[in-house]
Amino acid sequence: MNPLRIAVLSPVWFPVPPTGYGGIEWIVWLLADGLVEAGHDVTLFASGDSRTKAKLDWIYETAPSERIGMTLPEVHHSLHCYEQAADFDVINDHSGLPGAAMGGAVQTPVLHTVHGPLDSEAGTIYEQIARVSPGVGLISISMNQRRPKPDLPWVANCPNALDFSLYPVQPHRGDYLLFLGRMSPDKGCHRAIDVAVTAGLPLKIAGKKREALEQSYFDQYVEPHLGSQIEYLGEVTHGEKVELLQDARATLFPIEWEEPFGLVMIESMACGTPVIATRRGAVSEVIEHGVSGVIVDDYRIMAAALEEADRLDPYEIRRYAERNFSPERMVGDYLDAYRAAVERVGHPQVV
Ligand code: UDP
Question: For the residues 213-226, what does the mean pLDDT come to?
Answer without folding.
Answer: 97
